[in-house]
Amino acid sequence: MAKRSAAGRRAAVTLVLAILCGPWLESSAVAIDLPVKVEVGVEEKYDDLAIYLVDQSTNKTYTDWDWITEPYLTLSYTRPGRLQTKLLFDFTADIYAKYPIQDYETFRFLIRQALDDKTVVAVKYTFIPYIFFGDIEISPGSTVPYREQQHEINIVRASIDREVTSNLLLTASVKYGARFAQPDFSYRDFRLWGGSVEGAYRLLATTKLVLGSACERDEARGGTNLFSGNPDNATYEQISFYTTVSHSITDRWLLKGWYAYRWRAYTTGLGPATLNGGDTLHFHRTDHTNDFAFQTIYRLTQPIYLYAMYENILKNSTKSYAQYHESIYTIGVNYRF
Known about the structure:
CATH class: Mainly Beta
Largest sheet: 14 strands, antiparallel, barrel
Strand content: over 45%
């Protein structure tokens, strides 16, 4: 069955948000600490590199920009008491204006449990029913001809937070995930393992610094590339470092900036001397990615927040087709009640 058009989905999203928010917008904006909380919002993004595909039959790249609408809904319940339990459900839809084949939805489920006054454990499950990872050129408005390149993603993450002092919070986490392709593209199935550690330190009453590091291994099934006929094994190992600084200018206005560096090395040993010239996409490939972002958040009223963000991604690689420079501009609004 064909997907709904982007315009149709936007209309449906607008209607849902209006039904959910309308009665609340007419009510008092006084904050009430309830065990059940709802947050709805929408983001508009301009991505100058929303489409970045490698046509493996010609070894050429295909790029284009797009407008992305991202509505989301978050529901949470917190059981009152000293050792609180929190349950959370989050739904996000990414809707592309020019390339609806890129549309996808994300579902997240989380449970957090306080073990004592300073320790909290959490488990989060992320599910993406289908997301497009294409290897051939696509055209604006394309949907059905490329469905076979949609993938399913499942990730489980477990974490523990420990308040060391009133100003220092340490977090450690592990994750496991899997990505499943359609049968013709099963060589791009993945299993991943990873972990991270980070520390959040309050420098001042209005300023917080976060430092962290993460490692990950994604193991591909491997096989023969459907387009080029070459061996294809995209297994890689990755290490990243990141930092975030946030500063409250007033009780209504927050500024945030962050930087992340990612090193990724593909581990395939299928060089030119192997079958059909080897894995030309991944053999001896190493990527270096620098990611900068700046965000401002302003509380317009007690329940309504406005925000804007700019992100700049610069990726260098030993493979020329994997090098790019991307800028993303985002504006958004959310309503918390």
